[in-house]
């Protein structure tokens, strides 16, 4: 029986495991194995809500083991650290408990077909001090770490003199930095309801730092300008054309030798594929360390390996690269599932063509703006307000349906709404 090994349970990896589980695993035509270093899945575009405390991973996460049991794939908890392409095996690191005791030794997993879906990590571009003093939002664990520090900072400021402020500096004017900035103002307002009466938006000072001339550089100028206006209204200090030279314990130094003071610092200034991919010395990579692929999303020069998501270096006909977005991971997962089935049937595989359906930026409860790409005219449609908010939420709903199916997906949405109505709106632990 063929073994199909998927490394990475992000949006694309989990959707692919679900599709192949129903098409092959259920019929015992192939063994589908999903590997991830975490035990549960959180949709990555929501990690800024985990960091702020608006989203609780213990209730909103998807446990891989339970999900796999219902969708006909196996889950292996582990972190990939090696690959032997000749022997067709992946090496997983040893696992230890919180006391440092060995739980599972280093082990190898054999495969017939491998899918690399390991996502991306923040790129600090070698900036001194960033790794030591900044928070990153690459995983639920990192987002939870920032959240704990945020709550502690709220408690400290709540007990301090009324003239003391909480200074937060966020480097990176992309979607993560922008959405986190707005979400932090929202949770500051919520904190007053939960025993922190002195916390409000006026005691929160947020600096959003962007090295380029505009925040949201990948989006149309009209959208970035609209978002900038909304952020300034909230009180965010938007610092464009500001390059960070180094990070220290209490803030940043810019290339112009300006000091930006901060009690909490978040780095969200770019992504790259994890460093261990380069260390493997097996794949052809681009400057973001993404694995270069053929039009069919197979790794160049390596047999029986497909790549999807943020770690996939897929160059389009115009020379541009497919952007690391949830929508591209979703499209890649669907194509790879189809290509695996076509290959098994002896049919020619299809090439991948990225379809840009537009981009949306959600500024918490304050505003949502974005653009939708028209399927009929090919033009971009600017939307904002409630319509944009509805479309933004719908993207996550589509992901839930993709991994749970229509019936359970709808039930999950209903349960989520009930939970939001009865539980605290801010996670305080």
UniProtKB/TrEMBL annotation:
PANTHER family: NADH DEHYDROGENASE, TYPE II NADH:QUINONE OXIDOREDUCTASE. It comes from Bowmanella yangjiangensis. Keywords: FAD, Flavoprotein, NAD, Oxidoreductase. This is NAD(P)/FAD-dependent oxidoreductase. Residues 4-333 form the FAD/NAD(P)-binding domain. The lineage of its organism: Bacteria, Pseudomonadati, Pseudomonadota, Gammaproteobacteria, Alteromonadales. Belongs to the NADH dehydrogenase family.
